[in-house]
Amino acid sequence: MSRKIAVIGMGHVGSTAAHYIVANGFADDLVLIDPNEGKVNADALDFKDAMPNLPFHTNITVNDYSALKDADVIISALGNIKLQDNPNDDRFAELPFTSKQVKDVASQIKASGFDGIIVAITNPVDVITSIYQAVTGLPKKHVIGTGTLLDSARMKRAVADRLHIDSRSVAGYNLGEHGNSQFTAWSTVRVLGQPISKIADERGLDLDEIDHEAKRGGFTVFHGKKYTSYGVATAAVRLANIVLNDALTELPVSNYREEYGVYLSYPAVVGRDGIVEQVQLDLTEDELKKLQVSADYIKTKFAESQAD
């Protein structure tokens, strides 16, 4: 069965995701969409020039929304990263721009007859994921945001750095909004066969400092190069592959939680049918409070985006 992925928005993140897909042969067909004709055609040609030196072949289509009809996954990477260069380091600075763009793109996705899975990276990702679902009318379980899949990776990297182990040996989640109200749910984090609280006591780890580092990680990268790309593109492509392979993997992604009435990051099992099962964590009282704060914030911002 042919595997078809589309990437909408060929800026730093979209082109990084597309390159990762092409270089690893993750798709048979790749659709690239961007209003900047020169840039998207240049990327397509660049990828084709790479193929003689790759073990894989990928068929590439440019700026054809009708080609989305039979796509398995659409990765939304559109945005305007320059808007994030603000003193508050606020991902919501992009919302007036991206909400307008996304409503237009989502209506064209709907018109194409697309009935696969949408993976949204576009910031602020939880609100944008909600907009995609509302405009396309796709089932909620078929519209997913990368959410705190990246923040959880940043937390794992920060813990692993201190313990001198591989970051994949750390298990656990950051939850809530992919933004300033997200937090590490330390009750879910295990490392070296123990709850992290036990290891932290034994080895003098400052969990508040690690949580802050995970939350600030994106801005540290952003201030160094004025965009982020590798971490989030890798998270999005991993999600796309999990869908394509029906891998049924538990991940902290932005998915619609009925009890909060909003899209936010909370672990779910992801497969070919999108969100296949929602996980129920046994969170502490404090963590539940933080999650509610995050949910309320996302809800307020989604309402603002609808009023525009």
TrEMBL record:
Family per record:
Belongs to the LDH/MDH superfamily. LDH family.
The answer to whether the entry has keyword Glycosyltransferase is: no
Q: Which CDD domains match?
A: HicDH_like
Q: What is this protein called?
A: L-lactate dehydrogenase
> Domain Lactate/malate dehydrogenase N-terminal spans what residues?
4-145
Keyword Oxidoreductase tagged: yes
A Pfam family: Ldh_1_C
- Give all residue intervals belonging to the Lactate/malate dehydrogenase C-terminal domain: 148-304
Q: Which Gene3D superfamilies match?
A: Lactate dehydrogenase/glycoside hydrolase, family 4, C-terminal, NAD(P)-binding Rossmann-like Domain
- Give UniProt keywords alphabetically: Oxidoreductase
Query: Which species does this protein come from?
Result: Lactiplantibacillus daowaiensis
